[in-house]
Amino acid sequence: RSTLFPYTTLFRSEKSRKDKKKRKKTRGEEQENPPAPLPPPSGADAAVVDGDAAAKQQRESEAEAHKDKGNAAWKANNAEEAIHHYTRAIDVGHTSQIHVYYSNRSAAYVSVGNFMAALEDATHSVDINPNWWKGYLRKGTALLALGRFRPAIDVFRAGLQLKPGNEFLEKGLAQAEESLEIGRASCRERV
């Protein structure tokens, strides 16, 4: 519920703007000739736009450098250092690859046993880019580690819709289904 609050506020704001515009139109207050679009920036204004592009490129490069350091730490089996570098990449700000940084950090969190943090990061990854199959792999893995087998099955299946036949997603799905069946059998034995 709390995550939806900002969005509902935005929708209400948009609706109230439309209603206000509608009321003006019915009262004849609507402008017949809307203002002409602004010309493209030139001179000092163009430098600001170019500066924004340069700043964005700088953020992308800085974040990628942290990701590369995190990947190197991950390959060296140093998950804590990898988490540190992926966190630095995320902290740089929104970049085009931020979903990858969340996904990578999620894998590192799983390896140190912090499954709730892994689930949170994997969820961010999927929310930011729902077409990134590794986000589903990370989320399913975290859910599986938390013993939430039914949601894990659904997540692995969603990932397989994006990447049919992927061996990691298929293994995760099989493990989640097997774990769910073992849990059911255990419950039947107790009764």
Outline the structure in words.
The protein has 191 residues and is mainly α. It has helices at residues 5-26, 44-75, 79-91, 98-111, 115-128, 133-145, 149-162, 167-190. Helix 4 (98-111) runs parallel beside helix 6 (133-145).
Poorly predicted runs are 1-24, 26-31
Which value, in Å, is the CA radius of gyration? 24 Å
Distance between the termini: 37 Å
Largest sheet: none
Which shape, going by the Cα principal axes?
elongated
Strands, count: 0
Assembly type of the shown chains? single chain
Structural class: mainly alpha
Strand content: under 5%
- The DSSP helix count reads 8
Helix content: over 70%
Mean pLDDT score: 80
User: In sequence order, what are the helices and strands, one letter per element?
Assistant: HHHHHHHH
Q: What is the element layout, followed by pairings?
A:
Blueprint: H1 5-26, H2 44-75, H3 79-91, H4 98-111, H5 115-128, H6 133-145, H7 149-162, H8 167-190
Short description:
The protein is mainly α. The chain contains 8 helices and no strands.
Q: What tags apply to this protein structure?
A:
8 helices, elongated, mainly alpha, single chain, 191 residues
